[in-house]
Design brief:
Blueprint: E1 2-4, H1 5-11, H2 20-33, E2 36-41, E3 48-60, E4 68-73, E5 79-84, E6 94-105, E7 112-114, E8 118-120, E9 123-125, E10 128-129, E11 152-153, H3 165-168, E12 175-179, H4 190-201, E13 214-218, E14 224-227, E15 235-242, H5 251-259, H6 267-279, E16 283-287, E17 295-300, E18 306-308, E19 314-316, E20 323-326, E21 331-334, E22 338-339, E23 352-358, H7 361-370, H8 376-383, H9 390-405, E24 408-411, E25 414-418, E26 425-429, H10 430-437, H11 443-453, E27 456-459, E28 463-467, H12 478-489, H13 510-524, E29 528-529, E30 535-536, H14 538-541, E31 565-566, H15 571-583, E32 589-599, E33 608-618, E34 620-622, E35 633-634, H16 637-651, E36 656-660, E37 667-677, E38 680-688, H17 690-694, E39 701-707, H18 708-713, E40 730-739, H19 744-754, E41 759-768, E42 777-786, H20 795-813, E43 816-817
Parallel strand pairs: 13-24, 14-17, 29-32
Antiparallel strand pairs: 1-12, 2-12, 3-4, 3-6, 4-5, 6-7, 6-10, 6-11, 8-9, 15-23, 15-24, 15-25, 16-23, 17-20, 18-19, 20-21, 21-22, 26-28, 27-28, 30-31, 32-33, 33-39, 34-35, 36-37, 37-38, 38-39, 40-42, 40-43, 41-42
Helix pairs in contact: 1-4, 4-11, 5-6, 6-9, 7-8, 13-16, 19-20
Length: 818
């Protein structure tokens, strides 16, 4: 929130020193005690040479159709000639003149420039008449559009030629832009901020008073209100003001608004914003004559209702969830968030209805998020407003409508609900305070700090009973009070002590160690880690998932349309990373990702989280260089399978087998295998389906995805040392004529199953399919290697084992040994 120290000073008896050095010290004190400061600045930002001038004469430019020559009075005996193209200039106006030598902010670049005398088509110009946007005002806070012309003061602004325009406009008022945490709702108001600054500076807060004068007409005869449920609005009241004149606000009010970062609109709207800034209580104004039957209804939205809000956007309301203020036939506003276009106050408005309320904060927060409509009002209702000021702010707004808009306040408030806030008291033990903070504070020390905070309390022998004020909705337990005492006592003043007691070193769990080992192994195999979004689209969430019919886990309030669903696989995110890199001319890619996927449960609101690891390869495995003339080789299935095999071997998974499959819709049906450890399914590996990669204009892409929980369940926790045998090996070759549909994995599995423990390696060294073989046959040649770790193998042992293998192959697979 932007806090004008000049305005704040009114509540602190002008005790704040507004000199730049003192403001910097104050900002540091606020940061050390209360909240962070984003910026300490003024609208002026180094500008000077801006004065109020009165336009005495306006003459056409002899050599221009759109420029005029103005003679202006700047409070001296001599008039100053200025050439301008302002479309709204006229004699008698009080305007802003940037004199020769002035430093002003260039409108289009924000650069500080020095004005010089210029000659425009033969006529000398000694300065420039300016719009507010030309002297540092953002379009969001300037009361008029830049195209409307120069800024013009009114008679009620009480300015005269020669006045310093920076002072008149409040541009030199120091402003602290505070970065509030969600709990500090009290500092979303000037009065709440005054209490905070007063506690730091040990100053009493003086709240301005006002005198409300009511007329004879009754408000209850002009407006009625109906509330469906007190839970929607525990406090709600209206006031009626008749015969208002809607016009621009006086300069003092406009200054307060634009220094707070808000744009002045008209006196009625500005009063409601002023009350919101002062009390932290949003106020809304309706045009009474635009309300059907002069009746308001506070209810939940109905089915298919729409509302055009003040930002001219059509909102589709959610039935039963959005709170609306409505007439008998249409919704008028999103309660606590934004008003509607149909009932807005404009220059033709004569009678107004002012609303002040406390709305259900949970429903307001949900509405603001659902419609992506986070307003100044919703920010305050979400965090909690001061119940004690709800109707006070309403009366003050009515009084200002009388004072600034000439209105007549109808007698009485029209109250729909007035639930009383339960008084919150906390018993604060002095011993507990000192135990938590490590201090030796006395009851007197504690009550002194409570006095600074302006909290009511009663002291007892060993504790202090503190009554929490309504302006601090963030406080509810003793720990909150202890925190207040700590920060005002000064964190730097708290004693520093070393921890005591026996210390124990932290350690990772077995699962954490295995996950970290997985990442190290993947990186040692040449893959780079990628981190993808957990949230994605429904299609990508299930693109490579094992169960594509599983229920999706979607967010009620997603941050964007392409981040709505929790992922059920990692490969889809890696494929996005590949596409991104290829689009940026990086084509040789090796990535892996380790993270969680989320499986929705039918009977449980919480999803099942499963740890996965996935990898992806595309591009060239090796390229030609001047050092070695070899042709490029693209990655293939065996490269990605080799990575998986190496990983599982290093992590400690034995008895791994690969089974060809075509069940994965988005994987190549002829180059994909399921991975098992014994009978336990671990994941899959293969080429992504060409239709998937072709859609993104990618070269062939190979990938794998493993269930890390399944992998870790198969890891051999005990590491066994296998000594290198000092005894020689013996080998036997076998050439087999087999049916073309028999896979190598089937033959290898059978050989391992029937052979003894002396077989250490099986190598397929030749594959032949050609005209010289019978139809439907292929020839596979194997080398079987035998070795004994403890002694020299006997040839009879090897021959016996080899014979068992060939017999099994003939009997079970009907092969022919050649």
């Amino acid at each position: 929130m932007k806090t004008s120290l000049t305005w704040l000073n009114e509540y602190l008896n002008n005790t704040i020193n507004l000199e730049p050095a003192a403001v910097a010290d104050l900002a540091e004190q606020v940061e050390r005690t209360s909240v962070e400061i984003n910026e300490s600045t003024t609208i002026a930002k180094g500008q000077d040479g801006l004065i109020v001038a009165k336009v005495m004469r306006v003459q056409p430019h002899p050599d221009s159709d759109h420029m005029v020559i103005a003679q202006v009075n700047v409070g001296t005996s001599d008039l100053v000639q200025v050439v301008t193209g302002a479309p709204n200039i006229a004699e008698g106006q009080l305007v802003i003149l940037a004199t020769v030598g002035a430093h002003i902010i260039k409108h289009d670049t924000g650069e500080l420039i020095t004005l010089e005398k210029v000659t425009l088509r033969g006529q000398d110009s000694y300065g420039m008449l300016v719009a507010l946007q030309e002297i540092g005002f953002d379009n969001k806070i300037a009361p008029k559009n830049f195209e409307d012309g120069i800024h013009i003061f009114t008679a009620q602004d009480h300015v005269k030629p020669g006045d310093d325009a920076l002072v008149v406009l409040g541009m030199n008022e120091p402003v602290l832009d505070t970065d509030l945490t969600p709990n500090r709702a009290d500092m979303l108001s000037m009065i709440g901020t005054a209490y905070e600054f007063g506690a730091m500076l040990k100053q009493k807060v003086t709240i301005p008073d006002f005198a409300l004068v009511e007329y004879e007409s009754l408000a209850s005869e002009q407006i009625t209100v109906k509330l469906d449920d007190d839970a929607l609005a525990p406090k709600y009241a209206l006031r009626v003001i008749n015969n208002v004149t809607v016009t621009d606000s006086p300069l003092w009010l406009q200054k307060r608004l634009w220094n707070a970062g808000m744009r002045p609109i008209n006196n009625i709207v500005d009063i409601t914003n002023y009350m919101m800034l002062m009390y932290g209580q949003p106020i809304h104004a309706f045009d009474l004559d635009k309300l059907t039957n002069h009746e308001l209804h506070i209810r939940r939205a109905k089915k298919d209702e729409q509302l055009v809000t003040l930002d001219e956007q059509t909102r589709q309301l959610r039935s039963g969830e959005d709170i609306v203020i409505a007439t008998v036939d249409e919704p008028l506003m999103l309660a606590g968030v934004m008003g509607g276009k149909s009932s807005e106050v404009d220059r033709q408005t004569k009678h107004i209805v002012l609303e002040s309320a406390v709305f259900n904060p949970s429903l307001i927060r949900a509405t603001a998020r659902r419609h992506n409509l986070h307003s100044e009002a919703s920010a305050r209702f979400e965090r909690g407003v001061n119940w004690d000021n709800t109707f006070t702010a309403l009366d003050h707004a009515a009084q200002l409508s009388d004072e600034l808009a000439g209105g007549q306040i109808a007698r009485g408030q029209v109250v729909a609900s007035d639930s009383q806030r339960s008084t919150r008291t906390i018993a604060l033990s002095t011993q507990r305070v000192n135990q938590i903070l490590g201090t030796a504070l006395t009851v007197s020390d504690i009550t002194t700090i409570l006095d600074q905070l302006a909290f009511d309390y009663q002291t007892h022998d060993d504790y202090t009973e503190v009554t929490l004020p309504a302006r601090r909705p963030d406080m509810g337990i003793a720990a909150d009070l202890i925190e207040e005492i700590a920060r005002l006592y000064g964190y730097d003043n708290l004693p520093v002590t070393l921890p005591y007691g026996q210390t124990t070193p932290g350690q990772l769990t077995q699962q954490q160690r295995q996950i970290r080992a997985s990442r190290r192994i993947m990186e040692s195999l040449g893959l780079n880690q990628a981190i993808s979004y957990v949230l994605t689209t429904p299609e990508k969430a299930q693109q490579f998932a094992e169960n594509t019919t599983a229920k999706l886990l979607t967010l009620d309030y997603p941050m964007s349309s392409d981040r709505t669903t929790a992922r059920q696989n990692l490969l889809a995110g890696l494929l996005e990373d590949v596409a991104y890199n290829v689009n940026h001319f990086v084509r040789d890619i090796a990535l892996y990702e380790q993270g969680r996927v989320f499986i929705a449960n039918e009977k449980n609101d919480l999803p099942t989280e499963v740890e996965h690891i996935a990898g992806i390869l595309t591009g060239n495995y090796a390229t030609s260089t001047w050092q070695a003339s070899k042709t490029d080789r693209s990655v293939d299935f065996y490269d990605i399978k080799g990575i998986v095999s190496n990983y599982l071997d290093q992590i400690g998974v034995n008895h791994v087998r690969y089974v060809a499959t075509d069940r994965h819709v988005n994987m190549h049906p002829g180059q994909t295998a399921d991975i098992y450890a014994g009978e336990v399914y671990l994941g899959f590996v293969g080429q992504l389906h060409p239709l998937v990669t072709k859609a993104q204009k990618l070269a062939p892409v190979f990938g794998f995805e493993l269930n890390l929980f399944a992998v870790m369940s198969q890891v051999q926790l005990d590491v066994h040392y296998h000594k290198v045998s000092r005894f020689p090996q013996m080998s036997r070759d076998a050439a087999l004529l087999v049916n073309a549909d028999i896979e190598h994995a089937t033959i290898e599995s059978l050989i391992k199953q029937v052979s003894g423990d002396k077989l250490v390696d099986i190598k397929l060294f030749d594959v032949y399919m050609g005209d010289k073989l019978p139809s439907g046959k292929k020839s596979l040649a194997y080398t079987l290697t035998y070795q004994d770790d403890d002694g020299t193998l006997l040839e009879a042992e090897v021959n016996s084992d080899f014979e068992k293998v060939t017999t099994a192959l003939i009997d079970e697979l009907h092969v022919e040994v050649r």
